[in-house]
Amino acid sequence: xxxxxxxxxxxxxxxxxxxxxxxxxxxxxxxxxxxxxxxxxxxxxxxxxxxxxxxxxxxxxxxxxxxxxxxxxxxxxxxxxxxxxxxxxxxxxxxxxxxxxxxxxxxxxxxxxxxxxxxxxxxxxxxxxxxxxxxxxxxxxxxxxxxxxxxxxxxxxxxxxxxxxxxxxxxxxxxxxxxxxxxxxxxxxxxxxxxxxxxxxxxxxxxxxxxxxxxxxxxxxxxxxxxxxxxxxxxxxxxxxxxxxxxxxxxxxxxxxxxxxxxxxxxxxxxxxxxxxxxxxxxxxxxxxxxxxxxxxxxxxxxxxxxxxxxxxxxxxxxxxxxxxxxxxxxxxxxxxxxxxxxxxxxxxxxxxxxxxxxxxxxxxxxxxxxxxxxxxxxxxxxxxxxxxxxxxxxxxxxxxxxxxxxxxxxxxxxxxx
Amino acid sequence: xxxxxxxxxxxxxxxxxxxxxxxxxxxxxxxxxxxxxxxxxxxxxxxxxxxxxxxxxxxxxxxxxxxxxxxxxxxxxxxxxxxxxxxxxxxxxxxxxxxxxxxxxxxxxxxxxxxxxxxxxxxxxxxxxxxxxxxxxxxxxxxxxxxxxxxxxxxxxxxxxxxxxxxxxxxxxxxxxxxxxxxxxxxxxxxxxxxxxxxxxxxxxxxxxxxxxxxxxxxxxxxxxxxxxxxxxxxxxxxxxxxxxxxxxxxxxxxxxxxxx
Lengths: 418, 261
Hints:
The structure holds two protein chains of two kinds. Chain A is an alpha/beta fold. Chain A has three domains: about 1-60, Alpha-Beta Plaits (2-Layer Sandwich); about 65-260, 3-Layer(aba) Sandwich (Rossmann fold), CATH 3.40.50.620; about 270-400, TPP-binding domain (Rossmann fold), CATH 3.40.50. Helices cover about 25% and strands about 25% of the residues of chain A. Chain A has helices at about 15-20, 45-50, 85-100, 115-125, 145-155, 170-180, 270-275, 295-305, 310-315, 345-355, 380-400; strands at about 1-5, 25-30, 30-35, 55-60, 75, 80, 85, 105-110, 130-135, 160-165, 185-190, 190-195, 200-205, 210-215, 225-230, 245-250, 260-265, 280-285, 305-310, 335-340, 360-365, 375-380, 410-415. In chain A, helix 4 (about 115-125) links the parallel strand 8 and strand 9. The radius of gyration of chain A is 25 Å and the shape is globular. In chain B, helix 2 packs antiparallel against helix 5. Chain B is of the alpha/beta class. Chain B is built from six helices and 15 strands. Chain B is globular, with a radius of gyration of 22 Å. The termini of chain B are far apart. In chain B, about 30% of the residues lie in helices and about 30% in strands. The chains are: A alpha/beta, B alpha/beta.
C-alpha cells in the first residue's frame, strides 16, 4: 500500500489534518506531509480532499471479496433456558433500521433445542427470516458447537452484516466466528450507521476506557461483524401480524465437535441478577468511605424497589461483588432513574450509565465529573443525604399505600450433569 | 503442565485526550505497564506450575520496548519470554494479532494451556483470547474466576456470566481468559528479579514464525479506525440547594413530577 501528496495540487488547507484519525498528517509551508509510520491507509484524508484530489492512495492487491454477493443483516439470537435475551430484541430494532436503509432482509440465527415458539416471536419483533438450528447439543451455549453452526450458516448464505450482543456469550463467541471466517469484528459498539457513500457499516465504540469514541469500518471483508452493548438501542414494538419465514437449518450430517461441557449453573440472587434490567438503580462509590456504609445504598434501593449498582472503585475495594459493577468493564444500564451516591464519575463509569433517563448525583466534591451527566445534583455528603432520602421515600410509599418491596434473595444451583 | 501466557503492554493511564488542532492523541509522558488483567494470567500460570510442574512461557507482540513488560513477568517467576517484534506486525487489529500469536505458539511447540487476561484495558475488545484459540484449533473458556480440578485431559473451571457463574469442563490443550477474581497476584521476588535481569529474551520477526505477510499487521487487518472523537457530556443539570432536608424534599418533588416515583 502507498499514499502520497501531490504537491502541485495541495493548497495546504489542512482539511486532511482534521480528517486523519491517527494524527499522521502535518502541514508545513502549505504542503501536507503524511507520516507513513502512523498512517493506516484508511483513506479519510482522500475523502476530505475531494475538492483538490491532492492525495493519492494506492492499495496493492487487497483481497477484496465480491461484496455484491453478501446480502442481509443478521442477528445472533441469544437465548437461555428458552428465554430470548433483551439485547437480541434491541438488535432486531436496530438491525431492522439498517436492513431497511440497505434494502436488504433482516435474518436471525436461533440455536437451541425445541425453540419453534421463540422463532415466531423473533418475527413479531422484526425478523424477515429465522434460521433455526435445533439439537440436544445446542441446548446450552458452548463456544465450539455454536461456532460450527453459525459459521456454517454464514458461509452458506453470505450475510452482509452480522450483529451479536456484547454479553458474556456474544463476547466469547463472536471472535471465534470472525476468526474462522477471517473477517473483521468490532467489539462493544454503541452506535451503528450505514455510510451513504460506500454502504459500509460505520461502527462506533468507546476506546481507552471511554475517553475516546472510535469509528471503525471493515471495508474489504464480509460479513461486517459487530458486537453491540446491551441497553444502547431501543427494543422494537411487537407486531403479532408480522409475516416471516422460519427456515430449519439441517446440519444433521455433521457431527458437532464439543471440547467443553457445561456442568452447572449458579445464579446470583434475584437482587443482583436484576440490575441490568432494573428500572431504578442506586449506585455507590468510594465516596461512601467503607464497606459498612454500603448498607445505606441497599436501604435506598430497597425503599425504591430498585437494584444496587457500584463503581469499579467500590468493587475493587471488595465492598460488593463484581456482578454489581456498572461501567466499561461492568454492566451497561439504562434505567428510568439512576442515583449515584459517592460516585466520582470516572469516564469508565459514565460509559455504563450515561444514557439513563434521569440521573441524580450525590457527591461531596462539587467538581466531581458525575455532575456533568446529572439531571439533579446534590452537593453533599452521601452518608447524610442518602439516609434522609430513604426516610422520605418510605414516607411517600406509606402515603401512597404502596406495598413495601420484599427482599427475595435466593441462590439456586442448577446442576446439569456431573 | 506447560503454559503459555499472552501479555500486552498498555499505557499506564487511559486518560487520553485529542489535540483538536493536530488530531493526535495527547499521550506525552505516559508510562507503559503490563495490562492489569494479564498479571492475573501470569499469576495463575505460576500457581499451576507450582502445583503440577512444567514451564511457563510469556509471549507478547509489540515494539522492542515491550521486553520491559516481559522482564516484569520473568521477575514474577516465568521461565521463558518471547517477544514478537517486526515492523510488519504494526497496525494489527485483533484478527491479525491472533494470527501472529498463533504462529508463535505453534513455534514454541508443546503446551497444555494458554492463558490470557480477560481483555486489554486500552482496546477493551476481549477478542484476542477466543480468536487465538480458534487459530490454534483448541477450545476456550472466557472470564474464568476459578480453576477447580486439573488432569492431563481436562480442567474444570468457573466462569462469570451476567446471571452469576457457570462451571465448565474444558478439554486440554485449551485456552482460558481470566478475570481479577481468580487470584491475588504476587510481587516480584529478589531471586527472580536477578534472574530476569540476566535472562535473554528471544525476539522473533515475521520470518522467524513463517508468517504469511498478508495476514499480519495492517495488511492482515480487516478493520480500520476512521475517526476518533472525545465524547461530550452535556446534560443541563440542576443543582439542588438548601439544607439536606430541603434538598431531599425538592428532589422527591422533581422525581414525582418526572413520574419516576
